[in-house]
Amino acid sequence: MSLKAEETPPAIDTTAPGPLNGVRVLELGSIVAASFAARMLADLGAEVIKIEGPDNLDPLREWGQGSVDGRSLWWSIQSRNKKLVTLDLHGDEGQRVFRDLAATSDVIVENFRPGTLERWNLGYDTLSAINPRLILARISGFGQTGPYRRRPGFAAVAEAMSGMRYINGYPDQAPPRVGLSLGDSIAGVFASQGILAALHERQRSGLGQEIDVSLVEACLAMMEGAVAEYDRLGIVRQPTGTRIPGVAPSNVFKTSDGLWFVIAASQQRMFERLCDTMGRPELITDERFRTHEARVRHQVVLEDLVGEWAGEHTAAQLQEMLEDSQIAAGPVYTIAELVNDPQIIAREALITHEVDTGDFIAQGITPRLSRTPGSVRWSGPWNPGSHNDEVFGDLLGYDEAQRDQLSDRRVI
User: Fold this and answer.
1) Is the confidence at residue 6, as pLDDT, over 50?
2) Which of 80, 22, 77, 13 minimizes the C-alpha distance to 46?
3) Helix (H/G/I), strand (E/B), else coil: 262
4) pTM higher than 0.90 for the full model?
5) In angstroms, rounded to a whole number, what is the distance separating the alpha carbons of residues 351 and 192?
6) Per-residue pLDDT averaged across 97-117, rounded?
7) Distance CA 30, CA 61 (A)
8) In whole angstroms, what is the distance from residue 348 CA to residue 214 CA?
9) Does the annotation mark 184 as catalytic?
10) Residues 98, 122: contact at Cβ < 8 Å?
């Protein structure tokens, strides 16, 4: 699938430096969390050097539901704008090379189990002694401290133990997952936020610091008022399906053409406009719905009425009527529908990635900066160690003979 020629957005100037131009990041770890954090930095112009073991490549190369010629499309997205090098950190030689890299870098992002870097003689005390300005962002299942710190922790576990998974889905059913590695991505966003804050603080102090991101705590941070509600009122939030307790009407409704459509009209004036659009102005003064508090008490009845009306119209008809009435609403898209949405196209939310197995479209840059925007300068390379010569040769100054020796010993 590709954007139609007449709809292709104008090309971004990939030669312009992004806002993080001049920041060098070393990415350690694998799969999602650290890679996602580093990708966000790379998209905004940072020089990201992704390190894989020469005999222990990132499993993300094989993840995802689609591949072309055996190459994961997800890998090409997650590794875009990154330089790939191979380096074995288990032995003295590889650790020495990594310390050389750390001496020239601003940030390290890792998602190993706590204690791993220390076991390799690459803990923050060691690295910061070499480079006091170095920032080390550490992502793990449960954090660097506490009784669970050495437990393995994946996003699924974090989503479960943070309370996020429990409130998802329907009562009396197994709590389902969102069809994404949500906990990993949330942790990656928090890690990148911490890195940006540490870079800003370093301008004042001249010193780096450690950033400790727990997958569980990252998910917990998204739990709105759930903890306070339990602490003060004894309320344990429960799964509520498609309804939002305390917000009405706001739900997903089935249209006459069999599609799902969200209508969110909980604000008073918006609710009144919805009643007029439905041809039911009498609902505005109905005691059951006259205030938001009343609507919440009678949420099931109200949303049944909205659902009955929505079911008499197609999704296109609903969109036109509700947009004309300035009511928040929109269809539940599949990816196939999303890629053809004019707003998505106009905003360049999807951009073309160029790879030798064939171009594809994928997510663009978020967030957007007006003067120094980020860009996709290249898609994720496939060959391990694609940038070994550039990084170990041009950056560190290792000559060809040294690089060959390291390669022969499987250090790189």
Assistant:
1) no
2) 22
3) strand
4) yes
5) 22
6) 97
7) 10
8) 32
9) yes
10) yes
Degrees to nearest 5, angle at CA 379 with 378 and 384: 105
| Contact in structure between 65 and 363 (CB atoms under 8 Å) | no
Q: How far apart are CA 272 and CA 277, in angstroms?
A: 9
Contacts of 27 (CB under 8 A, 6+ apart): 34, 35, 38, 48, 49, 50, 51, 82, 108, 109, 110
215-240: per-residue pLDDT in tens?
999 999 999 999 999 999 999 999 99
The string of pLDDT tens digits covering residues 128-161 is: 999 999 999 999 999 999 999 999 999 999 999 9
- Cα 258 to Cα 137: distance, rounded to the nearest angstrom: 47
CA 105/CA 23 separation, integer angstroms: 8
The model's pLDDT over 68-78, given as tens digits with 9 standing for 90+, comes to 988 999 999 99
Q: Given the residues 55, 184, 286, 399, select the one marked as catalytic.
A: 184
* Residue 100 to residue 87: CA distance in whole angstroms: 12
**Segments of 279-411 assigned E as strands:** 328-331, 350-353, 360-363
- Cα angle 142, 145, 148 (rounded to 5 degrees) comes to 45
- 């990252």: which residue's tokens? 218
User: Which tokens go with 148?
Assistant: 């669970």
Amino acid in the structure at residue 192: S
Amino acid at 300: V
Q: How far is Cα 37 from Cα 332, in angstroms, rounded to an integer? A: 28
The predicted-structure confidence for 159-193, as pLDDT tens digits, reads as follows 999 999 999 999 999 999 999 999 999 999 999 99
Between strands 47-52 and 24-27, the pairing is: parallel
Q: Which residue type is seen at 77?
A: I
**DSSP designation for 239:** -
